[in-house]
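Ticket #4471: structure output looks truncated?

Reporter: J.K.
Steps to reproduce: submitted the chain below (221 residues) through the standard prediction queue, then opened the result file.
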Amino acid sequence: MPRRFSEQEEQHIREALREAARSIMGPRGVRKTTIDQLAHAAGISKGSFYRFYSGKEQLALELLQTWERSFHQTIEQRFRSARPAGSAETAEVLKAVFVEDFPQQMMLSGMQGLFDVQEIDYLRQRAPDEHIRNMDEQDLRLFERLKPLFRQAGLTVAGDDRVIIAALRLLFDAALSALQHPGQGPLRAEHYHEAVARLIEGLFLVLFRAQPGRGRQRLQT
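Returned output as attached by the reporter:
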């Protein structure tokens, strides 16, 4: 019978597994990482690993969800600091989130391998329903915190919150793909930045309504 871990040991092992995942799975991704590698780095057996996680995918999803909570704080702080007025300035702030904050925070996390487009698709296909619900609720809570800031900017939400969250996720996917584009051909980074700006502009035109006297201007790139 496997030895039981004390509560303190369990906390230590969980953190060791998270650190192992950040250092091993973060750079190389889920599919190129084995449970043996994670367990060895954490100082436990492969069998003991399953006492903490159902698989390496669950551990990766936990890391990404923790990162997203931190990134949500970055988004909220960006809006609070910028204090935009009107749809054009608000769209500029959102553009900065996608083309400046997101790549910077991704690089600082050291988990570029987990943000690979194919890795994200792999994890999405294997994410349990409960995890998907938690991610949805996490995004909706962020949007609720941003709504007062939108109102201060003179904007009101003209669409379903869930539709706006879905649109923002599509923008996230587009930004993620753009970051991984080699940019050696006729399509370069500036073209993708321009495309993200246009997509954000369209989002604001359809899903947000400006108060009278605060007209929309074309988003600068």
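Triage note (M.O.): checked the attachment and the full token line is present. Strands lie at 155-157, 208-210.
Status: closed, working as intended.
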